[in-house]
């Protein structure tokens, strides 16, 4: 095999592997860590799954974490609000219908941009959004947006059994915990997160 052909094959293999692991390739480079809002939005936009924590109705109010798929919008058009496609046959949705308090945690590590450092290293960004997990109103414009956002990012969802009565949920964000550098969590309000300004930020 010629060197150029070998190099092209290697590139396609690497890109294909990244897509299979991440769901889609990175479309925007990592923001400056001084821009907290941009970094938080980048983490939510680029990740395809996270750990969604709810208050367990079967474990006496203990926290229950579950790996779930989510989307905040079509590629490069996300709104920052995580949407989910859940069934009450699963504890997460079942818990949320009784107690909406929830949090979603995502990390930069699965994106492959942390290099060889440990996932807990402060420079490998991590984000926890806390708020209320609520059902999106059926037949609303937001429900159509959630459907498009999720089915674009997770096409397999279209084939999930209707008998399981999946519904669209969203996390109404009330608090944000972000670490993307040394020095502790970055101060970031939901308003700043949902309406980020251009520039370096905090």
TrEMBL record:
<dbReference type="InterPro" id="IPR014631">
    <property type="entry name" value="CREG"/>
</dbReference>
<dbReference type="InterPro" id="IPR055343">
    <property type="entry name" value="CREG_beta-barrel"/>
</dbReference>
<dbReference type="Pfam" id="PF13883">
    <property type="entry name" value="CREG_beta-barrel"/>
</dbReference>
<protein>
    <submittedName>
        <fullName>Protein CREG1 isoform X2</fullName>
    </submittedName>
</protein>
<feature type="domain" description="CREG-like beta-barrel">
    <location>
        <begin position="31"/>
        <end position="194"/>
    </location>
</feature>
<dbReference type="GO" id="GO:0012505">
    <property type="term" value="C:endomembrane system"/>
</dbReference>
<feature type="signal peptide">
    <location>
        <begin position="1"/>
        <end position="23"/>
    </location>
</feature>
<dbReference type="InterPro" id="IPR012349">
    <property type="entry name" value="Split_barrel_FMN-bd"/>
</dbReference>
<dbReference type="GO" id="GO:0005737">
    <property type="term" value="C:cytoplasm"/>
</dbReference>
<keyword id="KW-0964">Secreted</keyword>
<keyword id="KW-0325">Glycoprotein</keyword>
<keyword id="KW-0732">Signal</keyword>
<dbReference type="GO" id="GO:0005576">
    <property type="term" value="C:extracellular region"/>
</dbReference>
<comment type="similarity">
    <text>Belongs to the CREG family.</text>
</comment>
